Each structure stands twice: as structure tokens, then as C-alpha cells.
Amino acid sequence: MESDSDVVVALDSGCDLVQGYYVACPAAEPDSDQLITPRLDAKWDELMNRELLRRKLNRRQMELSRQAFVQTAIALMQGSEFEVAAKPMLQLPDVIRCFLLDQEGRQQGRNLNSWRNGNGDSLRFSPLEDTTGAVWSRRAYFQHAIDQPGVLYMSEPYLSMTDTRICVTLSMAIEIDEVQHVLCSDVLMPGRSL
After folding, report:
1. How far is the C-alpha of 73 from the C-alpha of 78, rounded, in Å?
2. CA distance 38 to 54
3. 166 - beta bridge partners?
4. Dist. CA 36–CA 68, nearest whole Å
5. Do the beta carbons of residue 169 and residue 99 sit within 8 Å?
6. What CA–CA distance (Å, rounded) separates 135 from 190?
7. Does residue 50 come out as left (phi exceeding 0), alpha (psi in the -120 to 50 range) or beta?
8. According to DSSP H, which parts of the chain are helical?
9. pLDDT digit string, tens, across residues 67-79
């Protein structure tokens, strides 16, 4: 390790042992732990403070997404058109898309994509853009929603099949015109794109 950034990478990677000019210069007698440890502890504290701030921002972002998702679900149950009901979700900067599934997991219509989160590699993934009729019944986000209607579920982070980003899917089984559907929304995980 030679620099501050080397130390941050090493600590963030979970290294147990480090060496290099940042820790101590070569010498016949090594520096004592009383000199070395405080330097590394200060970097660790800096890294942890950044991580705590990142987590706080992520929690806030996900809470806003959850609130908008519930607004969308309520609007759909009250008879709003999907495009109108999904506006609160699609206006958030971290939302990629919204989509509806029938009670068997088949996608009803096209994805409603956020214009802010268009895929920069769209030509490469354009064959996967229209997922109308795709069956998502084996996905955990569908199964959890069907098992617990009216309960908001958030999937584990995963690589989206339709682009190169890590996302989570929010889902909830709701009734639209007395027929069960599953509302879904893919939300970006900050700093997790590939």
C-alpha cells in the first residue's frame, strides 16, 4: 500500500494484513504498533463513516420507492390506468421500470420504463425490451406476492435480464377489477451497476 486510496481498497476488501510505505517505511527497526495502528484506525473510521452515509442514503431511497409503489398500487385498485398510476414510481430517479403480471405470472403489456434510467446499451439489449407475455412465475418476487396478497415484497439484489444493472424488484399482489394481479417495479441498487 502506497497511498490513501490503496489503504481504502485494502480495508474495504477485508484484508487482515497490510504492508507498504503507507504503513511504514523500510527500516532496520520497524515502527511500533503505537505509530502504525492509529494511522490505519483513522482510515478505517473514515471508511466506516462513508459506508454509514451510503447506507442511510440507500435506506432513504428505498423508503421513497416503497411509498411511491404503494401509491401506484392504490391508484390501480381504484381504477386508474396503469400509465397514470405508475407516474409516482417512474418519477423517482432510481426506478427503472414498472410492469404488471396476471395471477399466473404472465406479463400484461409492455414495461413502463423510466425515461431517466434508459439503458445506455439499448441496441445490445433491444431484443429483451418488450417482455409482454413473458412468464415470471418462478421468480421469488412473484411467488412471495401471490403467497401474501397486499404485502409489499422486496427481492434480493440481482442482475436484471433486460440490461446490465443490479436491481431489486418490489412486488405486491393486488386486485384490479376483482382479478388478482401482481404489480412489480425494478429499482436500481446505487453503485451496483456492472
Report:
1. 9
2. 24
3. 159
4. 49
5. no
6. 27
7. alpha
8. 4-12, 33-77, 82-85, 87-90, 122-125, 140-147
9. 999 999 999 999 9
Please state the rounded mean pLDDT for residues 172-194.
84
Q: Which three cell numbers stand for residue 190?
A: 446505487
Phi and psi of 172, rounded to 5°? -160, 135
**Residue 179 pairs with which residues in a beta bridge?**
176
Q: How far is 94 from 129, CA to CA, in rounded Å?
A: 18
Q: What does the pLDDT look like over 125-174, one tens digit per residue?
A: 555 667 888 999 999 999 999 999 999 999 998 888 777 788 899 999 99
- Count how many residues are written for the chain: 194
pLDDT at 56: 75
CB 37 within 8 A of CB 59: no
pTM: 0.69
Contact assessment for residue 191 and residue 54, using Cβ atoms and an 8 Å cutoff: yes
Alpha helices (H) in 129-172, listed in sequence order: 140-147
